[in-house]
Design goal:
Layout lengths: L3 H29 L31 H6 L3 H7 L38 H6 L5 H9 L1 H4 L13 H13 L3
Amino acid sequence: MFDTMTLTKVVGGLCGTFLVFLLGGWAADLIYSGGGGHGDHAQAYVIEVEGGDQAQEVVEEVDFAEVMATASAADGEGEFRPCKACHSVEPGVNGAGPSLYGVVGRAVGSVDGFGYSGSLVAVAETWDAETLNHFLESPSGFAPGTAMNFSGVRKIEDRANLIAYLDSLDD
């Protein structure tokens, strides 16, 4: 039924089809994008749109103190789950990261027996809620060169809940 000649015709037909599509895409790019090398020219017809120049996205700044006032320690406990891989909340028990028991209000780099990276100690003095917020948003952005390999917590509400949970652990 199928012989070598029939198989050769089918493969040749498929290759020819792909070649036509390739050349058609190249020709369309040449026609529509001006890829012919004729230089930059102004458009022949421009449609004016009201507010077209103001297409910038407005980012609303949220006051962290307001978010922190409504934070939930119970929700923060759920946010702490990924942190358990490296940190502990028991006093004096360090893992790959230092113990986070009593971290809110504690001096940066003050856990005995844990070697901090120098860049972390250089950027802040105490772990207050505002400093923790910036650090948890992007650890490597807050303290470049830190040994902490964590991308950060994106939502400000999640960061506030996590800080409220950490603050609730100690007296």
